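The instructor's notes for this session suggest beginning with a concrete chain rather than abstract definitions. Hand out the sequence below and ask the class to guess, before any prediction is shown, which regions might be ordered.
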Amino acid sequence: MSEKYVSYKMSLDEIRSNLYDYYNNVMRGFVSSGIYAIKRQQTVKKLTKTYVIITLCFSPWIYKGIVSGVNKDEILIFIFSFICILFPIIFLIYFFAYLIIDKDFSNVIKSDCLNNLLKTLLKLNVESEKETITDEEINKSGLFEKWNGRTTEDAFIVVSDKAKYQISETSMVYKTGSGKNTYTKPIFDGLLIKLENSKNLESSIEITTKTKESIIEDTQDYTKINFIWYSIGILIVFTVLYFFLRDILNFIPFVDNFMEEFFLYLWNSYKIPTISVFTVIVLILSKIYRDWDVKRLQKQQQLRLSKRIKTGNSGIDEDFDIVLSDNNSDAYKIINQDLTQLILNIKTLFNASKVQLKFYGNSIMLAIFTNKDLFELGDLRHTPLHTKVSGSFISQIAGILMFMDYVENQIK
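After discussion, reveal the predicted structure:
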C-alpha cells in the first residue's frame, strides 16, 4: 500500500479512525458546495408530485365509499374497511414510491462522489467499470453451484504495485420455469473481489464462515419455527381475504352484488365447516413443507460434512467450514489464525451473513454475503456526513483495505 494507514493487524476501531478524516474532507466539500442541497430539493419535488398523483387516483374510490356508506347507514363499515384495507394499500404504494425515488437519489449522489472518494481512501488507481468480473470467472471459481441470472450495481478495478483487484457489487439468482410459473431463488447478494495469485495451487481451498444453518445439529428443532410461521401466515391471509376483501370490493360497481351475496352465502351457510376444512388444509401443507425442509437441510449438512476438513485448531474448526479438493500439504500452510481472523473482521465490517474465500489455480476470490446495498453515500433522510452513512461506508472500505494488505504481505 502507498501509505500504511491500514493494516490487517490493526484493530477495527483504529482503522476506522484512520479513514474517517479522509472521508470527511471529501464529503464535507461536496455538501458545502450546494450540489447536494440542489439535487435533494429536486428529488423532494418529484416525490411530492408522485404522492399527489397517487392520492388523486384513489380519490374516486374514497368518495364513492363515503357517499355509499352515508346513504346506506354503513359509514362505520366504510371507516373500518378504509382503515383495515384501503389505507394499508395506499400506504404501501406511497412507501414503494418513496423507496424507488430515494434509491434514484442515492445513485445520483454515488455517481457524483464514489470514484473520487475511492481514490482518496484507497490511495491507489481506481477505474470504474460496468463490470469487472465475468460470468466465466465466477463459474471457474466454483463458489456458486447453480445460477443463471445476474445484475451488477457497482464495479471497479483497484491497481496496486503488487496486484490488480477486480471488485463487483453483484447479485445472482437461479430461475426456473417460465411465464407466471417462474420461480426465482436468491443465490448471492453482496461483494465479489477477485485477483490473480503469483502462486499456482494444484488443489483448491475454500474457507467459509459457519452460519446458523451450517452448524445446526437438530434440523427437526430448526424447522419447528418454519412450521409455526408458515401456518400463521396462511391463517392471516385467509382471515384478511375472508372477512375484509368483500368490504373493499363492494366499492367496485360490477362486483358489488356478486361479492356480497357470495361471501354472505359462505359465511351464513358454511361458517364452521369452511373454517374447519381450511384449518386441516393449513396443517397438511405445513407438514409437507416441514418434511421437505428437514430433508433439504439434512442433505446440505451431509454434503458439507463429507467434504470439510479439520485443521486441528479448535478456534478455526469451530468458526469455519474448510474444504480442500485434495490433501495437498501446501494448502494447509495458507490456513492460519491471521487469515481466519481477517475473514471474521471482514464479516463484521460488512455486517455480512457469510464470507467465503476461495483459492483456486492462480486466482483468489472473496465473496461477502451482505444482502444490502453497498457503498451508499446518503439518501433523502441522511446526508453523506451522517454517522450512519459515513460509518457504514468507512467500514466497507476498511474491509477491502485489510484484505488487500493481507494478500500483498502474506500471500503474494
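Then share the key points. The two ends are 13 Å apart (CA to CA). Residues 35 and 109 are 9 Å apart (CA to CA).
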